[in-house]
Amino acid sequence: MYGQLLEKSIPETSNTSSTIETKKLEKGTLEEGMRTIVLQNPEGEALKDWQNGIRVFAASVIKRDKQKLLSSLEDAFAQNGDNQDYFAFITMLDNFEGWKPGKNGPSTAWTRLQEHYVPDYNQRIGKPAKKQSQNKKPTQQEKGLFDGFVDGLQNVAQTVINAFTGDEDKTNKEDLKQELSSPGKAKQAVSRVGKSILEDKAWIYECSTLISDSRANRQFIEDMEWFVGNHNDTYYDKKKGKVPGYYAGHDRTNERVLERIRAYMDNKLKPRNEKMRWLADIYANIPINKIIDYISKMYGV
Fold it and tell me: What pTM does this model have?
């Protein structure tokens, strides 16, 4: 009645209740969608690929104190957070141990990363630009993130060989691949005999350069980091949180660890069910024998 007098409609109570219930349902659906997005976390995968690309390249160009610099690189990643800006990261990196400038100028390793990822760095900070060769290949930043990552992994193989042999002028790609697959030469240059495979993780990123398939490359790095981390008493799982290390208490000698690495990768080729067939297909692109031979020669196993 009052609504008629004022020429306004007053919603019925039942309709109001229905509207509230509808909004609750929509909110629940939205929250569920948000949880799905968080679980998929494509941004996190992109960040991981971005970091792994730098790890692989860094491992290929560091000639001295490799473990020290790679460990320092991880500290830099932690401070960098989710940022994926090469210029900002390179600028920050020279504040970390091993990457800091010395009395003769920037460190060699830092300079190699700067030239590869931010070739116009000097111009951007106001320094005169260095003359570049007309034959210089596009950098990873000049390409798309994913394309640059894939192509960069293939190009890293040549850089790794040059770092091991000291020969910067070799151009025959087939010869380069053959040299990379011959771990004996690597051992002569950077022998790690006596070091622990579980404590010196540089081999993960070096071995990844033997894998040309980008998807297999990422899977190998992820799995080997999991493998090494699970030899500790506890391991932080992305889904389960802090859990006991799967290999905690196992023999940590290089001989037994290498046997375990081979068994781990061989088992990936034998899926327990069809749902895991995708993983077997990925591992079919990983040269397991070459990787085992590389680690064996490098650590004197």
Answer: 0.47
